[in-house]
Amino acid sequence: MSNPWRGEVGLVIDGQGYEARLTLGALAELEVALGADSLVALVERFESNRFSSRNVLALLLAGLRGGGTVMDAATLEHARIEGGPMAAARAAAELLARAFSVQA
Predict the structure, then answer these.
(1) Which residue, 39, 87, 92, 96, is the most exposed by fewest CB within 10 angstroms?
(2) 84-93, Cβ contacts within 8 angstroms, sequence gap of 24 or more
(3) Which of 38-67 are b and which e, b meaning 16 or more Cβ less than 10 Å from the residue's Cβ?
(4) DSSP 3-state helix, strand, coil percentages of the chain (rounded to 5)?
(5) β-sheet bridge partners, residue 16
(6) pLDDT tens profile 5-49
(7) CB neighbours of residue 22 within 10 Å
(8) What is the pTM of this model?
(9) Number of CB atoms found within 10 A of residue 21's CB
(10) Given a cut of 50, is residue 104 above it in pLDDT?
């Protein structure tokens, strides 16, 4: 079960549940994968609905790796994500939001 206080987001991929979260290492991987000038620029893409499917895949992959799952891009690209593309986009946006939320 996902723990939002740890920044976790639950995903069901090919019928199996996973926990994703953006650790510092996952965020660094994400910057490189997307050629983002900054993480702020990436967050702004999602806030303004200017993200691509490539952005969603990269975010989910980085989050899965940050959550401890070993998965390559080709596997995720061909996987069935429960809820379809919209659920994948929501999970990616939620990962970003939880990574940058302030916890008291």
Answers:
(1) 87
(2) 85/53, 85/56, 88/11, 88/56, 88/57, 88/60, 89/51, 89/56, 91/9, 91/11, 91/20, 91/60, 91/63, 92/46, 92/51, 92/55, 92/56, 92/59, 92/60, 92/63, 93/46
(3) ebeebbebbeeeebeeebbbbbbbbbbbbb
(4) 55, 10, 35
(5) 13
(6) 788 999 999 999 999 999 988 888 888 888 777 778 777 877 888
(7) 25
(8) 0.87
(9) 22
(10) no
Strand partners, 19: 10
Closest alpha carbon to 81 in 47, 54, 55, 57: 57
Report the length, in residues, of the chain: 104
Biggest CA–CA distance in the chain, Å, is: 39
Residue 103 sits at the vertex; the CA angle it makes with 35 and 30, to the nearest 5 degrees, is: 15
44 versus 58: the higher-pLDDT residue is 58
